[in-house]
Amino acid sequence: MQLGISTYSFPWSVGIKDFPPTHPLTATELLHYAAEKNIRCIQFGDNYPLHLLELQELNELKKKADQLNLKIEVGTRKLTVENIITYISIATIMETDFIRIVIDDENYHPSETHVIEVINQVLPYLHAAKLRLAIENHDRFPSNTLKYIIESTDDDLIGICLDSANSLGSGEGLGEVVSVLARYTVNLHIKDFTIQRLPHKMGFKITGCIAGEGMVNIPSLVKEVKNYGRCRSAILELWSEPKSTINETILNEKRSAEKSIEYLKTILS
Q1: Burial of 4 (0-12, 13-18, 19+ CB in 10 A)
Q2: How far is Cα 169 from Cα 204, in angstroms, rounded to an integer?
Q3: Which domains can be identified in the chain, with CATH numbers?
Q4: b/e per residue, 118-157, with b = 16+ CB within 10 A?
Q5: Which of 51, 63, 113, 233 lies in the 20 to 30 Å Cα band around 26?
Q6: How do residues 13-54 score in pLDDT, each as one tens digit?
Q7: What pTM was estimated for this model as a whole?
Q8: Closest residue by Cα to residue 190 from 150, 155, 225
Q9: How far apart are CA 150 and CA 133, in angstroms?
């Protein structure tokens, strides 16, 4: 399993709504950062939407990645036939073997039945392009529902992008998620976090942290997913807390990424 970084390794640097950086991180800068850290895999998430680039820009991005001996993975959100077809074209240009997809979008929350209908419509396109669709466990759907979606469509072409934190949003712990979804996982998002009871004792606060310093047993997670032999990349993602200014926030994010990468290299040698 290959270690990779993502536009979600540096979400503050890329840009978050209402917190724009003075100089947003560019795709080329991310590629050079990966090369400097001897990381060979970069995933572009929906916070850096590749479909907004012109064809020439996409080809230039692929050319730069090839020059630096880097592999690009593509990701998007909004599971519609039109969007998946668009990203099949982008994935083909980037010569990747899967598309990571978050089902929902801001005003789009399809039912389980509709998700299955959409996937069945795009299966012929995926098959023709020799691509898998990696559905991310992202808050709303519990793991057993995602399992049902996969088994109701095509468990070869449809897999899971397993995120180590997102299913907290559907009330599930990581152990439960891994027990159900590890066998379908084709891409892993490593996102460490801590959970602390609030001072008044009426609730908990979930906070992202440097990989290896939180509650996720990363060696165990990697081992469990590796056992099934389908997952080829483990991508670092970070939830770093904002500081008093955007510049301080970005500096803290960079430090967190560097420490996380150092740790993950000891796990994913």
Answers
A1: buried
A2: 13
A3: 2-267 (3.20.20.150)
A4: bbeebbeebeeeebbbbbbbbbebbbeebbebbeebbeeb
A5: 233
A6: 999 988 899 999 999 999 999 999 999 999 999 999 999 999
A7: 0.96
A8: 225
A9: 10
Q: Are strands 185-190 and 2-6 parallel, antiparallel or unpaired?
A: unpaired
Both tokens of 82, joined, read 């039109």
The separation between CA 103 and the C-alpha centre of its own chain, rounded to angstroms, equals 13
When pLDDT is cut at 50, 70 and 90, the band that residue 252 belongs to is very high
Q: How many CA atoms lie within 13 A of 85 on its CB side?
A: 9
Q: Distance between CA atoms of 268 and 120, rounded to whole angstroms?
A: 35
For residue 269, which amino acid is it? S
Total residues belonging to the chain: 269
What is the per-residue pLDDT across 180-201, written as a single tens digit (0 to 9) for each?
999 999 999 999 999 999 999 9
For residue 2, what is the DSSP state? E
Identify the CA nearest to 68 among candidates 99, 98, 41. Answer: 41
Per the DSSP assignment, residues forming a β-bridge with 4 are 41, 235
Residue 46 has which token pair? 């929906």
Q: What are phi and psi of 137, to 5 degrees?
A: -70, 105
